[in-house]
Amino acid sequence: MLVVVEETNAGEYRELLENMFRLRARVFHERLKWDVTVEDGMERDPYDALGPVYLIYTDEEQKQVKGSLRLLPTTGPTLVSEFFSDTMPSAAQLSAPEIWECTRFCLDETLLDNGSRAEMAFASGVLFAGLGEIALRSGIESILGNFDGGMYRLYRRIGCEVDVLGVTHRFERPVYLGLFPVSRPILEKVRERLRGREKDVRLVGGSGRLA
Known about the structure:
Layout: E1 2-5, H1 14-31, E2 38-39, E3 42-43, E4 53-58, E5 65-73, H2 79-82, E6 99-107, H3 117-138, E7 142-147, H4 149-158, E8 163-168, E9 175-181, H5 184-192, E10 203-204
Helix pairs in contact: 3-4, 3-5
């Protein structure tokens, strides 16, 4: 299932959130070797203090975190505008109530058939199907996010559409900025690839609307 965690219900999901932050530490600090802050085995950054919305892919008991992502409105501080500003085209207007930023997308390979390509793609599809549903309910028209070439191929595989807006070469591999349009046809294309496991994309928690 997918759990939507906001400021208003975060207290109900304290253990699930801690498990999500531990997953982030394993993925971004231990595996990817990013320069991130880890305390007590959990990775957090300043944007976690800004009231983000988390989408967490978990088991029915809401104990194991298979994957997660973080959402913030582009009308406030964002990772894209402050840390990846060199990927933003100067003429683009990317701050609006209808545009939200997605960051800290991660998956637990150990829970997904040891990182099998099929299971990783399925879990990604689950998260993006949930994100698309929330966005449509909330009047969000586009999702903004940074990614590398491997993630771009994954997005295409699961049915997402993305417009590449910019790139930075500050890192070992190019990091791109993409704008993901939100629409019912795109969401249905993603969901079509998840048929037969509908319980995985069931949304619980949250207010149902973000904007």
